[in-house]
Amino acid sequence: MLQLLGFTNVRMIEEMKNVAEESAKQTEATIVLSMEARRDSEIMKTITVATMVYLPATFVCVSRTSCLFSSPCMLNVTHHIVDCI
Q: What's the total number of domains in the chain?
């Protein structure tokens, strides 16, 4: 019976070692994923800043150069947009 308990303990230790190794692999994978998520977050911040700068500027430029908001083009729809500029 003593041998059986010794075998069971060895087997249990081996299983615990396997669990610890799998846990270490999962931890490494989680670290890689978190680093990728951080990089993705930095890229999204850059895109957001670029959008905040260029989108309003584009709207201002387009609204000043197009005749969509001017009354002569709105009243006379037979003319082309080129005639309004």
A: 1
Gap between the Cα atoms of 81 and 12, Å rounded: 82
Read off the DSSP letter of residue 85. -
The answer to whether the CB of 42 falls within 8 A of the CB of 48 is no
74 token code pair? 């709105």
Comparing CA positions, the residue from 75, 71, 73 lying closest to residue 84 is 73
SS3 at position 69: coil
Q: pLDDT digit string (tens) for 31-49?
A: 999 999 999 999 999 999 9
Please give the residue range of the domain that contains residue 50: 2-84
In the numeric block, which tokens belong to residue 54? Answer: 């260029």
